């Protein structure tokens, strides 16, 4: 848990992470590597002002496999990662933009769970970042529910500042 005194460790969560099975197939390892590369590109552009929390989000979609990842970094350099595999039906596959919205939503939900109310948000989806700031309209019918939910989440923060990180 992150609070004004720093990060408090939850032994149950540590045990759950340690008990997770390691990926044993090439397919599962590749899923982790995609997010690792994406976060590596983002961290290379990390703001080093060191005075506020930063959130990085990214999504990966290929051949009906979808993964999203979020990394929260405290002013003290503590890292809080989250990675999720998403499932969509074959009849209604997700677009890359939907996956990017899902990643941003996961990041904001995670921050709210940790009682974070202000932070910098970094992502490589120019579309998501510009739409949430109201610079671009959300025209795609499939994205409208995601955008509406993201606006609700954004309304629960005191201050969010967005930075687009161009894809490498």
Task: Report on this structure.
It comes from Vitis vinifera. By secondary structure, the protein is of the alpha/beta class. It is globular and about 45 Å long. The protein contains five helices and seven strands. It has helices spanning 11-19, 26-43, 96-113, 126-132, 144-154, and strands spanning 2-3, 6-7, 54-62, 65-73, 79-86, 118-123, 159-164. The strands form two sheets. Strands 5-4-3-6-7 form a five-stranded mixed sheet, sandwiched between helices. Strands 1-2 form a two-stranded antiparallel ribbon. The model is unreliable at 37-48 (pLDDT under 50). The chain has a single domain, classed as Ribonuclease H-like superfamily/Ribonuclease H (Nucleotidyltransferase, domain 5). The longest helix is centred in the first third of the chain and has 18 residues, at 26-43.
Brief rundown of the structure:
The chain is of the alpha/beta class and 168 residues long.
- Form type: globular
Low-confidence stretches: 37-48
Q: Percent range for helical residues? A: 25-40%
What is the CATH class designation?
Alpha Beta
Strand order of the largest sheet: 5-4-3-6-7
Give me the secondary-structure category: alpha/beta
| Largest sheet geometry | 5 strands, mixed
- N/C terminus separation: 32 Å
Protein name: RNase H type-1 domain-containing protein
GO molecular function, one term: RNA-DNA hybrid ribonuclease activity
InterPro entries: RNaseH-like_sf, RNaseH_domain, RNaseH_sf
Domain RNase H type-1: 49-168
């Amino acid at each position: 848990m992150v609070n004004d005194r720093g990060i408090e460790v939850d032994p149950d969560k540590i045990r759950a992470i340690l008990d997770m099975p390691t990926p044993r197939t090439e397919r599962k390892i590749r899923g982790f590597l995609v997010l690792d590369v994406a976060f590596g590109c983002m961290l290379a552009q990390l703001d080093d002002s060191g005075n506020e929390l930063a959130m990085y989000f990214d999504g990966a979609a290929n051949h009906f496999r979808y993964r999203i990842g979020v990394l929260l970094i405290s002013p003290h350099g503590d890292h809080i990662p989250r990675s999720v595999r998403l499932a969509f039906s074959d009849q209604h596959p997700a677009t890359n933009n939907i996956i990017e919205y899902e990643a941003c939503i996961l990041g904001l939900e995670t921050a709210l769970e940790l009682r974070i109310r202000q932070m910098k948000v970094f992502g490589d989806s120019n579309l998501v970042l510009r739409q949430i700031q109201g610079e671009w309209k959300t025209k795609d019918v499939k994205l409208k529910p995601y955008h509406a939910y993201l606006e609700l989440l954004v309304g629960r923060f005191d201050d969010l500042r967005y930075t687009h990180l161009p894809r490498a």
